[in-house]
Amino acid sequence: MEHAFQIGSLVLYKNNQLIAFNKPAGLPVQDDKTGDKALIRLGEIYAQCKLHPIHRLDRPASGIALFAKNPGAMASVSEQFRSRDVEKVYLAVVGQKPEVEEGMLRHYVAKNARLNRSVALDEEKPGAQLAELSYRYLRSIDRYHLLEVRLLSGRHHQIRAQLAAIGCPIKGDVKYGFRRGNPDRSIHLHAWKLRFRHPVSGEWEAITAPVPAGDPVWNAFEID
């Protein structure tokens, strides 16, 4: 997927400790086996310093990607992620409305590294990790439905696997059972809001990433 943008236009938040970008769908956060230019490398050119990734965001998804500018900031905010002190809110477009409009999902997620895929299981099994999220139905358009997802843990492909497990795969996500892919191979999963404490001041910081401009489905939901 080709991207035409100025890296500066993607900056959502920056100070001398941290920087956050609104990652376009299809752009890898970190270097991967494809050799495609990664957001972290573009970000380092922009910030003129080494960046340290704090959390994951799947390549076909869009939204907030947060980096630290030094190891101390990385350690501080990473610990907040581990201890579940960070608020992580996503938007997901699905083709099947959940039977229950609001709820908590609790699964055990097992990763298959060879297939780069995870499966959400109801029962614990060796190698599987507990995965929890809450979701809430927001509204519908035509054939699609918008969910707000609050991620309580951070497992591999967690939102994708857990929504698929309740029969609600994300639009475009053929890996997890959606009937057809998006033309640009993106999926309609967006890291929308992030709230955490600044690593030095301890003050709460809040970031919101606008949904991808020009996407007719995101636009139709008229997200504030």
Can you give me a brief rundown of this structure?
With 224 residues, the protein is an alpha+beta fold.
Describe this structure in words.
- By secondary structure, the chain is an alpha+beta fold.
- It has one domain (7-220): Pseudouridine synthase (2-Layer Sandwich).
- Helix content is 15%, strand content 35%.
- It has four helices and eleven strands.
- Strands 1, 2, 3, 4, 5, 6, 7, 8, 9, 10 and 11 form an eleven-stranded mixed beta sheet that branches.
- A hairpin with a 6-residue loop joins strand 10 and strand 11.
- The two termini are 27 Å apart.
- The model has no long low-confidence stretch (mean pLDDT 94).
What's the overall geometry? Answer: globular
Rg over CA atoms, rounded to whole Å, is 17 Å
Query: How many extended strands?
Result: 11
The tally of domains stands at: 1
Annotated CATH architecture: 2-Layer Sandwich
Give the helix level as a range of percent: 10-25%
Strand content: 25-35%
The DSSP helix count reads 4
Mean pLDDT: 94
Unreliably modeled segments: none
Give a quick account of the main beta sheet: strands, pairing sense, barrel closure: 11 strands, mixed
CATH superfamily: Pseudouridine synthase
The string of secondary-structure elements, in order, is EEHEEHEEEEEHEEH
* CATH hierarchy class name: Alpha Beta
Structural class: alpha+beta
Question: How far is the first residue's CA from the last residue's CA?
Answer: 27 Å
